[in-house]
Design brief:
Number of helices: 6
Number of strands: 0
Structural class: mainly alpha
Strand content: under 5%
Radius of gyration: 14 Å
Largest sheet: none
Order of helices and strands: HHHHHH
Number of domains: 1
Shape: globular
Helix content: 55-70%
Length: 106
């Protein structure tokens, strides 16, 4: 685990908007529901296990966030970039292919 001060804002942004966080929120928070706009409680965010993320991965998150922002400004789709973010998060948490299928609902 890491202390909150060790991550840049874009890394938090990527983690908290990932499919992994969404999945984790649904299984740990009784108020969360994937089909509805979930209630995001501060307790849920605080309890999400943040792992140590080295500067190289954090820079990748910065780059992806900038790409998403640029796509949104241009009213372009950002699904592919968001999928790349999810893949990076899965790598960070060492998820297996089977675990990824569960997270993605496949």
């Amino acid at each position: 685990m890491t202390k909150q001060g060790n991550l840049n804002l874009n890394s938090y942004f990527c983690l908290l908007n990932s499919k992994l966080f969404s999945f984790w929120q649904v299984i740990t928070s009784p108020k969360a529901n994937r089909k509805l706009f979930p209630t995001l409680l501060m307790e849920t965010v605080e309890n999400f296990p943040i792992i140590n993320i080295n500067k190289t991965y954090q820079q990748k998150f910065v780059d992806y966030v900038n790409q998403v922002i640029n796509a949104k400004i241009k009213l372009e789709q950002s699904n592919q970039i968001e999928s790349q973010i999810d893949q990076l998060v899965y790598q960070l948490y060492n998820l297996t292919e089977e675990e990824i299928k569960i997270v993605e609902g496949n």
